[in-house]
Amino acid sequence: xxxxxxxxxxxxxxxxxxxxxxxxxxxxxxxxxxxxxxxxxxxxxxxxxxxxxxxxxxxxxxxxxxxxxxxxxxxxxxxxxxxxxxxxxxxxxxxxxxxxxxxxxxxxxxxxxxxxxxxxxxxxxxxxxxxxxxxxxxxxxxxxxxxxxxxxxxxxxxxxxxxxxxxxxxxxxxxxxxxxxxxxxxxxxxxxxxxxxxxxxxxxxxxxxxxxxxxxxxxxxxxxxxxxxxxxxxxxxxxxxxxxxxxxxxxxxxxxxxxxxxxxxxxxxxxxxxxxxxxxxxxxxxxxxxxxxxxxxxxxxxxxxxxxxxxxxxxxxxx
Length: 319
Description:
CATH class of the largest domain: Alpha Beta
Largest sheet: 6 strands, parallel
Structural class: alpha/beta
Shape: globular
Number of domains: 2
């Protein structure tokens, strides 16, 4: 059993992971938050809640005393310079924390995805503090894109809200970059991510820095083929040119409509266009071809296949 601190623990992905950790019945879990607990249902039974000030490194250090592992889920968009996470790293080092996982939970690369620029800041900070000597073991939990998002508008997990992707299973359509039909995507359910994170927390060996979690490694053309099989009709595919995308142009008849809850409504349209373009172009550059370096440590764990996931979801449904 180890003591685990969860930073940003009220977020959707964090809550999926917290439930998986609680289910192991092995760890002492403390949820760190900028606010006091206000809900009768959160924090869940079996956890502790601690209000912290991420701008106060000494108090953060005190809060982390005796902690073995820190998992960060701090929202990147709310802190462009990533001051909170950098302070959390400093506090973890000061408190003698053994393991740290920054707020990742997506692609391995961030090229053409400015909304994830904060990940590069924190990655660089972690590399720098370990440059002369190994002071903090860390891993980057990277499951690729959550497979659950391709189920839009259906909610397939307890906490993760549905979000649209350029592979629209509901309406049997997809957007693909012309000439990059074999570009690779990694798709992993949030439940599989949470399970692997829980296994990693209990893992007694050293964490690999590259925390790749490969639920499914598929090409974009395979996603479309699978979609046609499980939905009973071929997808309508719109192909876009890479040079148009890189010029900021999305020449399609449709685009995403559902925006993340952390985004202001007045910023939604611009961000949705940016996300579509960013995911499409970054995919052509290998950003979503996640390794299985972490998940391969647990060969007995069987991740959910994309085809099984969608067959179970859409069977008997028309929309």
